[in-house]
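Posting this for the archive.
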Amino acid sequence: MSSSSGYGQDPRRRPGTESSGWAASGGQRFDDSPPEPALDPDPSLLISEEFAEAEGVPPLAPDDPVAVAEREREEFRDGMQRLQADFENYRKRVAKQTEEIRERAAESLVTQLLPVLDTADLALSHGGGEDIKQLSVALFAVLEKEGLQRIDNAGEPFDPNCHDAVAHEPGDGGGGQEVAEVMRAGYRWRGRVIRAAMVKVRG
């Protein structure tokens, strides 16, 4: 029988396919065409780590663009929160320092005005006129509104925190020491003693 009848040839082999080659076993054909390029995943089909954890599916790969964007967003948000907290602490610290500076400045001014009040008190004790009394009352009224208080009450118990004993007289032995006479008034500024009263103590 003529060889042109195709006897003995694999019927699956078609003319013109000799160049493609056949595997030695299995009869599979080698594919010489280049592999198709891998396509990037559709960003709309990607899922976040929060959704993956909630749904029980694999999260995004660490190098996935969406995962990178989410990580950068979280880092930016954390940085902004820290910056906001630092700024709030700085604002409170500056406000506190400003208030302390204002308090010290006001206290310093009041302390410098105390000798003026002492002079007015001394003048009144020696028969000073009505004009001196009005000046003394007006000056003290302004300072009193800001927080100045006098310490000048005789007969109250002696308190070393606000009284400076410069003289002593015997008492009747019936109790503790008390202020017998105020020789120079003391003052509190907003609840804090800035000058103790000079007093004579009895007892």
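Residues 148-203 form a domain with the Nucleotide Exchange Factor Grpe; Chain A, domain 2 fold (CATH 2.30.22.10). Helices lie at 49-55, 65-125, 130-146.
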